[in-house]
Amino acid sequence: MGAGSVAVVVTEEIGVPSWDLYELSIPCTVFGKPQPDLADPWYDLRLCGTGATAQDGPAAGTGLALRTRYGLEDLAGADTVIVPSVPDACVEDGEPLPPALITALRRAYDAGARMVSLCTGAFALAEAGLLDGRRATAHWMHTAQLARRYPKVHVDDSVLYVDDGDVLTSAGLTAGLDLCLHLVRRDLGARVANQLARRMVVPAHRAGGQAQFIDLSVPGTDDEGLGPVLDWARAHLDRPLTVEDLARRAAMSPRTFYRRLRAATGTTPLQWLLNQRLARAQNLLESTDLPIEKVGELTGLGTANNLRHHFVKHIGVSPADYRRAFPRTTPEPPSQSGE
């Protein structure tokens, strides 16, 4: 694990519509700005164009024509390839994607690159056959088209992102940022990802299984009411907390607490607790030399075997392998509080 080269595909031939600039800017922001105090070297970012010039079309009056230093031939040399989006005409009207792009994506995958799509970029990975037989997602507005056009893809329209090892896909807009921070977490560890998220003023970690459909109409006073109890829970993860415990502290019924937390975060109270426990365990494994049994105790995950079970299931490696991948560089005393 470690920072490597990240190639971002820019489809120049139709221009870049203004509404697609967000997805394009996400990997540029996460991987393009050096963070030497967090990891040195940082990622090597490359914007790779398809080689054509902008033409008249739907995006011509509202988009930008970008000139890139790298071309499609440079995708095969990258450690990670990201397709932020594809033209609306390719999604809505079924216009073909550039054949050279599809060929380049297949070559990059065959060369060992980790393949990533944000939002409608999943259509490019699917066209290249890289999502066949895999679970994948995209923005919920486009998942029906994705499923119809590529029946071999197991499309999940309910999640923020899907990590299938060497191929990862995300929903639209902010979910793309969640996935990019997830990649940093995979590559450089939870501490680096959390610090980077703080600098970007975004949540440190939203698990991919959280719902795309979050009720944003929940009144602000509800969120303020949840904040203190969630902070308290993060500070007492070593306790065997239940939904009833949290609801009682929030002065709500368990049913009301469940509904409000789900509306505010897109996940259930028990899943939220598990995510917090795992994040805390990652931090302790990276920043301390505590025995695995003690890490399980401090995070409320119980025995070393139980901690190992959850780590393998949700992180993909054992606690011991995770610690070896992200060795401690500076001492940090253990704390009950979350990141």
Automatic annotation (TrEMBL):
Keywords noted in UniProt: DNA-binding, Transcription, Transcription regulation
The keyword Transcription belongs to this UniProt entry's keyword annotation: yes
Superkingdom, taxonomy of origin: Bacteria
Gene Ontology MF term list: DNA-binding transcription factor activity; sequence-specific DNA binding
Domain HTH araC/xylS-type as annotated: residue spans: 227-325
Pfam families in alphabetical order: DJ-1_PfpI, HTH_18
Name assigned to this protein: Transcriptional regulator GlxA family with amidase domain
Organism: Thermocatellispora tengchongensis
